[in-house]
Amino acid sequence: MELTLQEDQTARIREWAGAERLLIALDFDGTLAPFRDDPMAVSIVAGGAEVLAGLAALERVQLALVSGRRLADLAALAAPPPGTLLAGSHGAERGHVSPSGELEVEAGGATEAELALLAELTASLESIVASAPGSWVEHKTFGRVLHTRKAEPEDAERATEEALTGPGSLPGVHTIHGKRVVEIAVRSVTKADAVAAMRAQVADASGVGVDRVAVLFAGDDTTDEFALASLVAGDLGVKVGEGESAASLRVADEAAMVTLLGEVLRALRASA
């Protein structure tokens, strides 16, 4: 699809592309891959894999995916190119793709106290979904997620409220209400933390200060706003879809995001 950028937007991309080192950090669901009722049946939109491969091959660019998904699921579904940095569970799990295309885990694993709290969350949420047909509970490494996308609106609303006021209010948990999901985590990590850690990682690997690494971050949901709001002068934030956002650029959907990344790729090649 064609994407018409305003003159100031094109200028922002070109300005960002001129930085010494670049980190392109992208959400996955709702940003590169459309949502599905079955979250394990999603895939990147047409042309996305090719654009990501092109970006990852550039010398000044570090590609990264930052997702609320479990790290292993993110790696399997996104099939990112070798060298890509990965953050799962909003950054509580970290890894990268090896030269041979395998996931190499750098950080992850719950403590005994966290596992006990996860068990309590599981019991509470399973009780809630029992009376809300179509809803279900996703198990993540550091959290549990109530999905209500397939439930009737009335059941979804009730289940959401019960999750927020019940297990979502327990001591020691961190709750986020997203698009037809309630995610309750036992470890407080946001995508802003993940992007900051990746920026520092790129700076360290390049032998430059973190202020010389410019970030492009794109996302669509509530959890992505933490990262978008954390961006500084010289960075570029992209909001996918509708809703208030701290991003400076906006695209309509996942296909438009891939088209925008194609524009970024052309700008980077032109500035090489």
Biggest sheet layout:
8 strands, mixed
Order of helices and strands: HEHEHEEEHEEHEEHEHEEH
The main sheet orders its strands as 5-4-3-2-1-10-11-12
Oligomer: single chain
Helix content: 25-40%
Termini separation comes to: 26 Å
| Unreliable parts | none
Q: Any idea what the radius of gyration is?
A: 19 Å
β content, as a range?
15-25%
* Number of β-strand runs: 12
- Summarize model confidence as the mean pLDDT: 93
Shape by Cα distribution: globular
Instruction: List the total number of helices.
Output: 8
Structural class: alpha/beta
Brief synopsis:
The chain is α/β, with parallel strands linked by helices and 272 residues long. Helices cover 38% and strands 22% of the residues. The chain has helices at residues 7-17, 48-56, 71-78, 112-129, 153-165, 191-206, 222-230, 254-271, and strands at residues 21-26, 61-66, 85-88, 93-97, 103-107, 136-140, 143-147, 174-178, 181-185, 213-219, 236-240, 249-251.
